[in-house]
Amino acid sequence: MTPPQVRPKSARRLIPRILLGMVFSIGFSLAFPPPLYSNSIPKARTITVKSVPVNFNLSNKAQTTFGKLLWRGGIEIIGSDEDFGGLSGIATGLDGIKFVAVSDRGKWVTGEIRYENERLIGVSGVTIAPILDRRGHPYKRKSRFDAESVAPFGAKGVEGKLLVAFERKQRIGKFKFNKKGMMAREKTTALPKEAKKARRNKELESVGRFPTGTVLGGTIIAISERFLDANGNIIGWLIGGPTPGRFTVRRSDDFDVTDLTITPDNELIILERYFSILGGVKMRLRRINTADIKPGAVLDGEILLQTDQRNTIDNMEGLASHRAANGEVRLTLISDDNFNVFQRTLLLQFALPK
């Protein structure tokens, strides 16, 4: 709409009124800030998505071994719903069929992964709903709902309680997903005070919990994206369990941590990402020996896969694991498209060699 034309004399009369209106508006917003959460609770809804198969090697479709991993299929997920996208964390069921993802816009995304001849070929039954705070309301502010990672709390996978790592207003939320599903309310687990020193976009990025009865059983493990110590290594924490404390992950080649998973064999796998204007996007997976994880440790580990855009990757942010019917440990990765038309939501799957 073209703004109305105002004569100079009339404009002079309007200026004080405009300034007075601005002062009143600013004062009102300071006195009555917007609520932390919405008064209405949107219902979970099923959305339509399309699964488009992808090959990991763009030039050699027959290649199945990449680094130390075996390719088990992948898809691009295309959805037209305005809330679909920005998926920054994923957890899967014990059999790898059900999945729960979280978005950095404060949404749950659930569904089922479809397989054919033990290869990932698609997703179905995709449902979306807001993540709820402790009062049962969806947060409105980005600083409150920026979810970055989701992981099982116990040995039941996504059929049990879930942990969600939030950045900005950093915390770990626990949700009774087994009882309430996407209507579960957040129960907050505080991070060590040191975490508050992390700068924006370098904060908490990944979370997991070692199952009871295993090494480090009952311990929550949380790692920042790029909160560095004096030696330039990435800071993480062991919370609860028998040996709580701080550790670091050796940072190399400018990679940052984006997620982690604790495999059915109780191994820690870390997903890392590199990005620069000149170098583009890269992805790396490292396996850490659980026996090495302790307060004060500098973790490094074996590189399982390191690749760049010569293969099918995007902004890979989420990582989950399960044991397939054939006994393989599978790693499932998801990318965050940042709600950008030039990026994609990829769901990729690899197997660890037996």
Your description of this structure?
With 354 residues, the chain is mainly beta. It has a single domain (44-352), classed as Tachylectin-2, Chain A, CATH 2.115.10. The chain has three helices and 24 strands. It has helices at 8-31, 142-145, 177-180; strands spanning 45-46, 49-53, 65-66, 69-79, 87-92, 98-103, 107-116, 119-130, 147-152, 162-166, 171-175, 187-189, 204-209, 220-228, 234-239, 245-249, 256-262, 268-276, 280-288, 298-299, 302-308, 316-323, 329-335, 345-352. The strands form five sheets. Strands 2, 3, 4, 22, 23 and 24 form a six-stranded antiparallel β-sheet that branches. The chain is globular, with a radius of gyration of 22 Å. Mean pLDDT is 88; it is low at 1-38.
